[in-house]
């Protein structure tokens, strides 16, 4: 189609949200570098350490000024957060006389046991210097517990307790703390502050000793590269990483915190029947895929190579600290409840009337939405739970058909602005094997579009960057026979041609072409054609741009970061907020979304072939080196190199809000990351000498992306610039890119006729038996091509939930806790500038 581009800007706030048989990975040997380079590197780091000296030295001074034969007492404030429900229950049990719930005749048996670890070692044993073991038993302080209970009821998140440690005068500076939980239940350790100077950000669930006998280790917020680690902390640094890696065996328990890799061998369930058999994703050429977090569940009864899926009522394993916090889980529970309630009325209608599961008219669609705001308050509340909120798009529509201008606008400013490309060759040419899929040339001919080019020739339009394309042909064509054999699924391999303002529209199916309508009949054919294009684009958006690029392909980098980068590592600190919840969301996706018969298969065009299409895109199209925004725009022809421009590229469409806003954010991310990287890595030697960093990146590729590990396009990691590019790309994908793809799903896709996830009917042709039905009532035929009423409401409920903002969400440019950078003023200042840039971007919206 040739459609008009007249777009508004994407909401900037949405952009700002935010197995195996693989080779061993080796790290660069220390003797790779000359002694001169090593000395230079050490001198730079010593100077930086002096520059970073903070109030922590005050603690050392306090200790060292004490007489040699005396011990020094250090006071720490411990902040703890437990589940609100459990906290109130436990405290009430204690006050009403159930003392055994907390206390015991042995002091340590029901308490937290904490021990400080010095940055220094004992001269003789070379073991870290330790404080005494301090006992935290809040059950004994009834007054403090009363205050904390009141705070919990009033909504306070944390409870704080004072603990005193005794240390030797030569103890040095505290650098870490070990913690043992002697209580019966897990608790959340928020932070520990020593003398108001040394801060330890814990942010972790501590399991009872009965479930995990290993002491937990927490380090101060000061960042250390591996070879800068103080002597007293080296062993603990390595020990913690070993704990997180595990040994690759056994069933993972909900209380575990082990990160490991596995293939996607758990999305099928052959024990339920042949219709639930699905191929393993990853570990083979046919269905290559990034790896997931290993759970260790037993195999299915009928296929030893398939892992048994988790019961839908049981929590699928992710490391304990990857679970949703209570605020987010609560919001999801409310969303699920609304989804169930909003499904009740359509279900009752379907039961009452056999024909009521099909949309009969515009009114049938509109009644799903709570558009009447004049109702009394109590009825508005009822309406909120029984009806859907009107999507953003619905306000401007006067019918169930999407106007051509809006259809074109959404290609560059809707929920999927990442599929459109500049057309460089006409007719479009397929890259598929012609011996299997037929001629590579498109059925589109010059006569189909020449009348819509405003006097230009085809060649002139191409040279002036006036033609653009949504090309789903090669994605869908290999699967069309299988898709069209499914019940209630009909699809084409579509190509859609767009022309910027003042002109009309035209898509094509192989061997069939639609051009702008000339009468009522061709108008309805035109609307059905546009609906098929939107449906294909919805499928490509969800399976490739959303799931594959921002979820599945990021999981290996996150797993490797936890396995190979210490929490003390500056790169871990930079990446941490951008890794939040991804593993949990991906695990839930395997359990409910991409599994056999799950939400994706049930709703989208490709049905049970959805994940096979995603694998094909991963094999044939995905490249990490082209995932950064400028590279992606150049790849799609939406920009051309231009050294005179701020970003080094020039957009071929000025009114392309995703790219315009996105380049501002990309540039700000890149600037922040470059400042951060250059602060810790002054030259290539520093990058190559960082064994944790090199192992993280190598493992991400060789284990996490094992099926593509031999690809020549993987970026090298040898210089600060290399590292800046890699990190900026990861941060971009997990924040701004994901927000652009996710948060608009319901506002732009919650009105099914304008963006149907699948189609049930093909275009009627004159020789088809259905053509008579179409001619008798074109609108009825058009509406019957969409998902059923029940399918539509299920789909709407899901995208409403997954695209909603979470109450505990952090927007890019915001940090709830800057304490992790407390010693680095250069980094704090860089982040402040970045934060201001993000706020300015939101103001421009």
UniProtKB/TrEMBL annotation:
Pathway: Lipid metabolism; oxylipin biosynthesis. Residues 223-845 form the Lipoxygenase domain. Residues 285-308 are annotated as: Disordered. SUPFAM superfamilies: Lipase/lipooxygenase domain (PLAT/LH2 domain), Lipoxigenase. One of its GO terms (molecular function) is oxidoreductase activity, acting on single donors with incorporation of molecular oxygen, incorporation of two atoms of oxygen. Residues 88-220 form the PLAT domain. It holds the Pfam family PLAT. It comes from the Eukaryota. Its cofactor is Fe cation. Keywords: Dioxygenase, Fatty acid biosynthesis, Fatty acid metabolism, Iron, Lipid biosynthesis, Lipid metabolism, Metal-binding, Oxidoreductase, Oxylipin biosynthesis. Its EC number is 1.13.11.-. One of its GO terms (biological process) is lipid oxidation. PANTHER family: LIPOXYGENASE. Belongs to the lipoxygenase family. Plant lipoxygenase may be involved in a number of diverse aspects of plant physiology including growth and development, pest resistance, and senescence or responses to wounding. This is Lipoxygenase. It comes from Prunus yedoensis var. nudiflora.
């Amino acid at each position: 189609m040739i459609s008009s581009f007249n777009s508004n800007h994407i909401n900037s706030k949405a952009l700002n949200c935010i197995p195996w048989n693989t080779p061993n990975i080796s790290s660069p040997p220390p003797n790779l570098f000359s002694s001169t380079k090593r000395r230079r590197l050490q001198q730079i780091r010593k100077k930086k350490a002096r520059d970073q000296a903070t109030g922590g030295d005050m603690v050392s001074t306090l200790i060292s000024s004490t007489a040699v034969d005396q011990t020094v007492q250090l006071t720490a404030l411990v902040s703890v957060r437990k589940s609100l429900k459990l906290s109130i229950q436990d405290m009430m049990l204690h006050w009403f006389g159930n003392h055994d719930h907390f206390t015991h005749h042995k002091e340590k048996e029901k308490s937290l046991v904490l021990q400080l670890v010095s940055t220094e070692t004992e001269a003789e044993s070379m073991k870290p210097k330790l404080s005494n073991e301090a006992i935290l038993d809040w059950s004994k302080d009834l007054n403090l517990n009363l205050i904390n209970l009141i705070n919990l009821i009033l909504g306070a998140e944390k409870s704080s307790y004072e603990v005193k440690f005794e240390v030797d005068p030569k103890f040095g500076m505290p650098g870490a703390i070990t913690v043992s939980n002697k209580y019966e239940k897990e608790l959340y350790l928020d932070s520990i502050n020593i003398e108001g100077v040394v801060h330890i950000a814990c942010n972790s669930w501590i399991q009872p000793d009965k479930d995990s006998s290993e002491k937990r280790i927490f380090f101060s917020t000061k960042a250390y590269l591996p070879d800068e680690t103080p002597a007293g902390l080296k062993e603990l640094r390595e020990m913690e990483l070993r704990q997180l890696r595990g040994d690759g065996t056994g069933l993972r328990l909900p209380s575990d915190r082990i990160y490991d890799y596995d293939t996607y061998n758990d999305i099928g369930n052959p024990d339920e029947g042949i219709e639930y058999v699905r191929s393993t994703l990853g570990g083979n050429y046919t269905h290559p895929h990034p790896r997931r977090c290993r759970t260790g569940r037993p195999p299915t009864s009928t296929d030893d190579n398939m892992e048994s899926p988790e019961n839908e009522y049981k929590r699928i394993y992710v490391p304990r600290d990857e679970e949703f916090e209570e605020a987010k889980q609560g919001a999801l529970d409310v969303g699920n409840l609304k989804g169930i309630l909003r499904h009740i009325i359509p279900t009752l209608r379907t039961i009452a009337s056999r024909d009521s599961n099909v949309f009969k008219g515009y009114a049938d669609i509109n009644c799903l939405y709570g558009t009447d705001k004049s109702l009394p308050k109590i009825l508005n509340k009822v309406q909120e739970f029984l009806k859907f909120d009107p999507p953003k798009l619905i306000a401007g529509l006067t019918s169930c058909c999407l106007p051509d201008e809006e259809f074109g606008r959404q290609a560059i400013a809707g929920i999927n602005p990442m599929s459109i490309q500049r057309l460089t060759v006409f007719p479009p040419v397929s890259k598929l094997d012609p011996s299997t899929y037929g001629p590579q040339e498109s059925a589109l001919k010059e006569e189909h579009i020449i009348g819509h080019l405003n006097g230009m020739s085809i060649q002139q339009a191409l040279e002036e960057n006036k033609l653009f394309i949504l090309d789903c042909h090669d994605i869908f064509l290999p699967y069309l026979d299988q898709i069209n054999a499914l019940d209630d699924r009909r699809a084409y391999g579509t190509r859609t041609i767009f022309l910027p303002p003042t002109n009309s529209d035209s898509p094509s199916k192989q061997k069939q072409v639609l051009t702008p309508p000339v009468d009522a009949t061709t108008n309805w054919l035109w609307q059905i054609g546009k609906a098929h294009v939107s449906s294909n684009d919805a499928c490509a958006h969800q399976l490739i741009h959303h799931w594959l690029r921002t979820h599945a392909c990021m999981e290996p980098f996150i797993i490797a970061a936890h396995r190979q980068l210490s929490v003390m590592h500056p790169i871990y600190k930079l990446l941490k907020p951008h890794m939040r919840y991804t593993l949990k969301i991906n695990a839930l996706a395997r359990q409910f979304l991409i599994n056999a018969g799950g939400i994706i298969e049930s709703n989208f065009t490709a049905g049970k072939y959805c994940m096979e299409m995603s694998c094909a895109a991963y094999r044939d199209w995905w490249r990490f080196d082209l995932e950064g925004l400028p590279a992606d725009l150049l790849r799609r022809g939406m920009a051309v190199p231009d050294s005179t421009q701020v970003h080094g590229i020039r957009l071929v469409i000025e009114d392309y809000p995703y790219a315009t806003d996105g380049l501002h954010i990309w540039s700000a991310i890149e600037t922040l990351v470059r400042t951060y990287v250059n602060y810790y890595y002054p030259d290539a030697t520093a990058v190559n000498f960082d064994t944790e960093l090199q192992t993280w990146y190598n493992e991400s590729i060789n284990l996490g992306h094992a099926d593509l590990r031999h690809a020549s396009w993987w970026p090298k990691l040898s210089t600060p610039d290399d590292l800046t590019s890699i990190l900026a790309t990861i941060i971009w994908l997990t924040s701004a890119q994901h927000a652009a793809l996710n948060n608009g799903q319901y506002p732009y896709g919650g009105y099914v006729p304008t963006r149907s996830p699948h189609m049930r009917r093909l275009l009627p042709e004159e020789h088809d038996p259905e053509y008579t039905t179409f001619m008798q009532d074109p609108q009825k035929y058009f509406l019957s091509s969409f998902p059923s009423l029940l399918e539509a409401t299920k789909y709407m409920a899901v995208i409403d939930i997954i695209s909603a903002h979470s109450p505990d969400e952090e927007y890019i440019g915001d940090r709830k806790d800057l304490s992790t950078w407390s010693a680095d003023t250069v980094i704090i200042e860089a982040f402040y500038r970045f934060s201001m840039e993000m706020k300015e971007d939101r103001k421009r919206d």
